[in-house]
């Protein structure tokens, strides 16, 4: 799964967003206040990747996002875009880190974006031992947040106009395809049979309904074993998909039996 959304001042400052995702305490120069999320748990890796021509001080998270804020003048400015990646449960943390870094290095850094990577384990540590194995697996949702700057960057900092192409459907499709290809390359290298695709079920001719994206708030409730309306809908969708799969397997088995007669 790959989703992209804007981060704008109408929601929160980029400094606050970066502090929350990294679990750090950062000072916001525009709002003249600290944002302290050092008590946040489940953050297993953070890292900043920069284009070659970016100022070296941008490797500091506080410097980077304060500079991005200062580059915008409008009260409703979009400061950054965020890419959220669902990470394969089959991979180790070190392999996932390398996979995310390669994706960022291939897709975003060459365009001139600065990337702030934060990987969350997404593990519900309150899961009780008497729950079903299926429920335990659902509670494990490793994922990566990648905050990307929205303006060209040079040795003196951010400059010029925003690139409208970065918002195009063409780039979105390219990024999703690249993410799927890099995952599959990793699966093959690790000898894993699992494969993923960036194409929809309909385009691939699969009779399966997609689940709906929960988002961080609903996902946090689900991890605390608090059922949500959207979570219930997803469970119902998964149940129907399992029924379809079972019917498909039964039909295939029946056809094999008839051919063998």
What descriptors fit this protein?
alpha+beta, 261 residues, elongated, five-stranded antiparallel β-sheet, single chain, two-stranded antiparallel sheet, BirA Bifunctional Protein, domain 2, 2 domains
Commentary on this structure:
The chain is built from seven helices and nine strands. It has 261 residues and is of the alpha+beta class. The chain folds into two domains: 2-198, BirA Bifunctional Protein, domain 2; 207-261, no CATH class. Helix 1 packs antiparallel against helix 2 (61-70) and helix 3 (93-107) packs antiparallel against helix 5 (169-189). The radius of gyration is 21 Å and the shape is elongated. Mean pLDDT is 85; it is low at 125-139.
CATH topology of the largest domain: BirA Bifunctional Protein, domain 2
Q: What's the CATH architecture of the largest domain?
A: 2-Layer Sandwich
CATH class of the largest domain: Alpha Beta
Structural class: alpha+beta
What would you report as the Rg, rounded to the nearest angstrom? 21 Å
Number of domains: 2
Summarize the structure.
With 261 residues, the protein is of the alpha+beta class. It has helices at 14-22, 61-70, 93-107, 133-138, 169-189, 215-223, 229-260, and strands spanning 2-8, 25-28, 33-36, 43-49, 78-86, 115-120, 143-149, 153-154, 157-158.
Give the helix/strand layout.
Layout: E1 2-8, H1 14-22, E2 25-28, E3 33-36, E4 43-49, H2 61-70, E5 78-86, H3 93-107, E6 115-120, H4 133-138, E7 143-149, E8 153-154, E9 157-158, H5 169-189, H6 215-223, H7 229-260
Antiparallel strand pairs: 1-5, 2-3, 4-6, 5-7, 6-7, 8-9
Helix pairs in contact: 1-2, 3-5
């Amino acid at each position: 799964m790959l989703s992209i959304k804007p981060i704008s001042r109408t929601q929160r400052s980029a400094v606050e967003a970066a502090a929350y995702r990294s679990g750090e305490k950062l000072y916001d120069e525009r709002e003249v206040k600290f944002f302290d999320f050092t008590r946040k748990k489940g953050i297993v890796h953070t890292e900043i990747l920069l284009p070659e021509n970016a100022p070296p001080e941008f490797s500091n998270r506080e410097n980077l996002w304060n500079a991005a804020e200062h580059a915008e003048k409008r009260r409703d400015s979009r400061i950054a875009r965020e890419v959220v990646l669902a990470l394969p449960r089959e991979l180790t943390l070190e392999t996932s880190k390398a996979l995310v870094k390669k994706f960022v290095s291939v897709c975003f850094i060459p365009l001139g974006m600065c990337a702030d990577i934060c990987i969350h384990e997404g593990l519900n540590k309150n899961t009780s031992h008497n729950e079903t194995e299926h429920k335990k697996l659902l509670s494990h949702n490793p994922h990566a947040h990648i905050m990307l700057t929205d303006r060209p960057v040079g040795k003196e900092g951010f400059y010029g106009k925003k690139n409208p192409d970065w918002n195009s459907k063409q780039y979105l499709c390219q990024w999703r395809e690249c993410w799927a290809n890099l995952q599959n390359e990793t699966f093959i290298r690790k000898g894993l049979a699992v494969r993923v695709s960036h194409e929809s079920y309909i385009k691939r001719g699969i009779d399966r309904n997609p689940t709906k994206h929960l988002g961080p708030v609903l996902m946090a409730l689900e991890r605390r074993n608090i059922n949500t309306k959207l979570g219930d809908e997803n469970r119902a969708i998964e149940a129907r998909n399992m029924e379809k799969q079972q019917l498909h397997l039964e039909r295939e088995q029946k056809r094999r039996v008839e051919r063998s007669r």
